[in-house]
């Protein structure tokens, strides 16, 4: 790797290390995903009843752990969420890592969110584990998700931010080549991607029914 590329990467790591060094204590966040996949917004591009966000899988963690990487392969835990909306494998892995103190501080599962609705989980972060990763399936869909990964709750001064937020777009988890809104329970519609593809924004696929538009929003609100 050339030094031109290496230098900014090292600088970013140095900054993260610096803000963690100045940090003290812990904080609690509400992690809110708002589902905008209503027929009012997307019309006949989506089923007339709208689309759901499956129960969130959310984790606070250190930079030693990464649960989801865009341009990387979905783990079996992420694949289960993307294909079925069930987050049991993801939450079990995260709980195991938490119990073993392997770079996980907190784990939370959500209740799911219908079209136009929110779902909220609470996550504790601390100085060693200031990153939040959270994801949910767009359901029904072949393997489409909304996600935030490795979001740093610390600012440059080592203070926990009061609020973070942004837009959610659809990502293709790269495990199923289907393009229709078919129920996850009917595996006969599955078209497994062989070989597995990288997780990527769905707008890179010309058949994206959302036309690259935002499908929701996320907000982290510090409550303690
Ligand atoms: Ca599928
Ligand atoms: Ca796919």
TrEMBL record:
Protein name: Spondin-2
Species of provenance: Gracilariopsis chorda
Keyword match Lipid metabolism: no
Alphabetized PROSITE patterns for the sequence: SPONDIN
Endpoints of the signal sequence: 1-21
Family annotation (InterPro entries): Spondin_N (IPR009465), Spondin_N_sf (IPR038678)
Pfam families xrefs: Spond_N
Gene3D superfamilies: F-spondin domain (2.60.40.2130)
Keywords for the protein's UniProt record, in alphabetical order: Signal
Highest taxon of the lineage: Eukaryota
Annotated ranges, domain Spondin: 17-209
């Amino acid at each position: 790797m050339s030094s031109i590329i290496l230098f900014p990467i090292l600088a970013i790591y140095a900054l993260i290390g610096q803000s963690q060094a100045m940090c003290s204590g812990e904080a609690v966040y509400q992690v809110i995903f708002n589902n905008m996949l209503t027929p009012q917004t997307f019309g006949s591009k989506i089923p007339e009843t709208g689309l759901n966000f499956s129960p969130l899988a959310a984790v606070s963690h250190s930079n030693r752990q990464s649960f989801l990487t865009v341009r990387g392969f979905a783990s079996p835990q992420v694949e289960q969420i993307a294909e079925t909306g069930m987050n049991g494998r993801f939450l079990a892995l995260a709980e195991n890592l938490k119990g073993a103190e392997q770079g996980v501080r907190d784990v939370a599962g959500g209740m799911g969110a219908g079209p136009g609705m929110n779902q909220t989980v609470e996550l504790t972060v601390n100085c060693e584990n200031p990153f939040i990763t959270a994801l949910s399936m767009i359901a029904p869909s072949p393997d489409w998700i909304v996600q935030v990964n490795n979001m740093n709750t610390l600012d440059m001064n080592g203070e926990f931010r009061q609020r973070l937020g942004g837009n959610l777009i659809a990502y293709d988890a790269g495990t199923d080549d289907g393009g229709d809104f078919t129920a996850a329970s009917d595996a006969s519609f599955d078209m497994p991607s062989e070989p597995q593809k990288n997780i990527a924004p769905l707008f890179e696929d010309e058949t994206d029914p959302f036309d690259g538009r935002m499908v929701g929003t996320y907000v982290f609100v510090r409550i303690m």
